[in-house]
TrEMBL record:
Matching PROSITE patterns: HTH_ARAC_FAMILY_2
Residue stretches spanning the membrane: none
Species whose genome carries this gene: Pseudomonas antarctica
Pfam families: Arabinose_bd, HTH_18
Protein name: AraC-type DNA-binding protein
Molecular function, one GO term: DNA-binding transcription factor activity
Domain HTH araC/xylS-type: 229-330
Entry keyword set: DNA-binding, Transcription, Transcription regulation
Keyword field contains Transcription: yes
Key word Transcription present: yes
This protein's GO CC annotations: cytosol
Amino acid sequence: MRERTIASHYARAALGGARRAGYDYSPLLLQVGITPELLAEPRARIAPEQFTRLLQMLWLGLDDEYLGFAEGPSKRGTFAMMCHALIHCRTLEKALERGLLFYSLFPQGPRWQLTREGDMACLSLDDSQLWDPDHFLSECLLVIWHRLGSWLIGQRIRLHQATFSYPMPAHAGEYDLLFPCPLVFGAPHSSLVFPARYLSLPLLQDERTLKHFLERSPADLLSRPDEGDSLSSQLRRLLSRDRTPWPDLEAVAQHLHISPQTLRRHLREEGTSFQALKDELRRDIAIYHLGRADLSLQEIAEQLGFSEPSAFHRAFKKWTGLTPGAYRAQES
């Protein structure tokens, strides 16, 4: 979904390496439309397009695809060259092996390993040598390799498990967008575990499709959420399609052919609720329209099911810590 927003945490975390290097990124934030107020507010959200532009401009400014988080830089174009090196491989396994071999030629970067155990495969990352206090680069690398692999074979690789070599971070609530699978923190390595059957699948991409893919990658891979197969994701897709008027819990339960009690219980098991999902979606749709100035505040309020603009104003400030006007002012 284009409206799915990104927590301000990721913008602050992405800037960590630049800050450490003494790089003045304030002009970048101005160009992208991220105000100091938004950057500092923990509840604030950023549009995917803004985050993509921020990453691209940071890569350009630092000339480092590791954004200052590794022992040495990975010059711009390294990821693209790696993709060119693997695009002619016959299977996903051969492509991953070649990609990991490519990066092993640069000793200052993080180390990778692809292993099999029974009917499961494990892509593990040794992030012990990274300067990565917010685990930004570790998360990015795992997401990029998962989504690159999925793109290569033309289907989403369903993850069996994701493990992390660090304790559960404060922003772990965002992980359902990044790793839609069971999570294990404090593990020996950060890794992705998935059925080994994917490794034998043929690559469906070629030089022509790679050219288009690389125009916005790998930033696009990080900005685009993985909706996954959870009930929460199903509900979000359902609500985003049919919201005039916004359906209530009973109507959604009926559509899914389950009782309201069962729906509540399943959502509770996934750590959320119907109201929380609805509010997250309304928040993201509001940010989408506020960034485009295509609708007035009153029209946005009406589209989101608020009877009065003042009610929308109060709800939006509760969701993001900022007023709708503060978000709209970024684009002016």
